[in-house]
Amino acid sequence: MKIMFSIFYILFSVTTNAQCAMCRAALGGDANTAQAEAVNDGIVYLMVVPYLLVAIIGYMIYRMKKNKSK
Fold first, then answer.
1. pTM tops 0.85
2. Are the C-beta atoms of 16 and 44 separated by less than 8 Å?
3. I want to staple 27 with a disulfide (CB 3.0 to 4.6 A). Which of 15, 19, 36, 54 is the partner?
């Protein structure tokens, strides 16, 4: 369990830049920094949903196996 928490804190403490090449090209330049940050944040938020689903499913499988072993 300690290893899992360590991995979680390592992965989520890193600042991410989630812009694809097309978004970066469309929002490039000094004038669009606020828009670029907003697009980057939106992409990161959209990435959270699949990771949460995988985590929830993994936890449910863990609980089922734990209850089955009793």
1. no
2. yes
3. 36
